[in-house]
Amino acid sequence: MVELLSPARDFAAMESALNNGANAVYIGLDGYNMRAHTANFSMENLNQAAERCHHHRVKLYVCTNTVMRNKDIEHLKTVLPEIKSAGADAIIASDLGVLKIARDVGIDVHLSVQANVSNSESLKLLHELGVKRVVLSRELHLEDIRAMTEDSPLEVEVFIHGAMCLAISGRCFLSSYLYQKNANCGECLQPCRKEWKLVSDDGDVLSLGLAGNKGLDENKSLEGDGASLNESNNPCDSKGRVDKINGFKGHILSPRDLCMIKHIPQLMEAGISSFKIEGRARPADYVATVTRVYREAIDSYQSGDWEFQDQWLDDLKKVYNRGFDTGFYFQTPYQTSSYNQATHTKQDVGEVVNYYSQVNAAEIRLWNPLKVGDEIIVQGLTTGSIIQRVESMQIDHRDIFEAHKGQNVGILLTRKVRPGDIIYRRIKRNK
């Protein structure tokens, strides 16, 4: 059975993964992962994280996949035994020195996508070195992956959803060059997501099509001795056209997000061991939605009753995304995107004051209006993320249709919540 692997930046995201069908969760530790600016887990609460996962019969993987210098390796010699004793099922690593230490400690190693593994001979060598699983390069086509899994001595993992990097398997130096923030030490400030303009040295313009989403205009070529990319805060016109003075402006370095929800059958038949969702910087409601959708799709295929549901894609569009693409799976270059293209956003409307387990109802103190029919998200560190419609509301045991700021209301919920949990209302965005 294929594993569904979900990300977690904190306990709320972890609970969301556990409650929505993840088979495994991967997390980062402070100082040793590729999301240094995200709220990570610590050695002090790693044991609790492992206990929560194992209570749900879910595996826990810990990221240690940054660039490792001598001082980092020395510290990791102390940290890895603690990670193992805390109950982690494996580490995700990209450095051969970390692999050696992990072998000595006796903890399984999943080789990170940062290693850029892209052929069968590498799999065989890594097997000899003691690696248990490899996260394959994002730049592989599906037919390449299928060929590699046929005789692979290792488990094979691939990304199926989430952000894609401009550089080959994350090996980017743009953040280091511009801001002295090392992307491969988890400090990337993502300058690729900003708007840029492209001009030649002598002022001629390279046309990249509308808003950078159509690829290179084959009828235009760059004239002059060279060209330069310059970060720009000035938008192109409403149709994404070239500014004849300043050159092309747009999100020409920003890939869309990977989304393989329509292609679950092809992935399932490719011999892949684990489907990975990107998103350790994403909030709990994102993890809940994406995990649930892919869980339903995988289960649909495994039941022998596969039929793509339009609602799956609609739900994925409701949470943060930059537009969707299939990356390199089908040999087509991915398109670029502007920024958030989610169809919905969320507004905080209140917090849970009390929960009454006998009737599955919560008392909520409202900060903003709420009405019957609204789609809400209840989010908390222990609760995770619950997404549902408001079916009914009461004040003093009287049914009401709408409540206002400052009121305390009672609503029925599908799962247990806790005082202090925050309530959000999901709102359709105006684009």
Structure notes:
The strands form 4 sheets. Strands 1-2-3-4-5-6-7-12 form an 8-stranded parallel β-barrel, surrounded by 4 helices. Strands 18-17-23-14-15-22-19-20 form an 8-stranded antiparallel β-sheet. Mean pLDDT is 85; it is low at 209-247. The longest helix has 19 residues, at 284-302. By secondary structure, the chain is of the alpha/beta class. The protein has helices at 11-19, 43-55, 70-86, 96-105, 120-128, 142-150, 174-179, 264-268, 284-302, 310-318, and strands at residues 3-7, 24-28, 59-64, 90-93, 109-111, 133-135, 155-162, 196-200, 227-231, 248-250, 257-259, 274-277, 324-325, 344-356, 361-366, 370-371, 375-380, 384-389, 393-395, 398-400, 402-403, 408-412, 422-428. It folds into 3 domains: 3-168 and 256-325, Copper homeostasis (CutC) domain (TIM Barrel), CATH 3.20.20.380; 195-250, no CATH class; 344-428, Translation factors (Elongation Factor Tu (Ef-tu), domain 3, Beta Barrel), CATH 2.40.30.10. Helices cover 25% and strands 25% of the residues.
What is the CATH fold-level name of the largest domain?
A: TIM Barrel
- Helix content percent band: 10-25%
Strand order, sheet with most strands: 1-2-3-4-5-6-7-12
Instruction: Characterize the overall form.
Output: globular
Give the averaged pLDDT, no decimals. 85
What is the CATH homology-level superfamily of the largest domain? Answer: Copper homeostasis (CutC) domain
Measured between the Cα atoms of the first and last residue, the distance is 40 Å
Number of domains: 3
> What is the name of the CATH architecture of the largest domain?
Alpha-Beta Barrel
Low-confidence stretches: 209-247
Radius of gyration over all CA atoms, rounded: 23 Å
Total number of beta strands: 23
Number of helices: 10
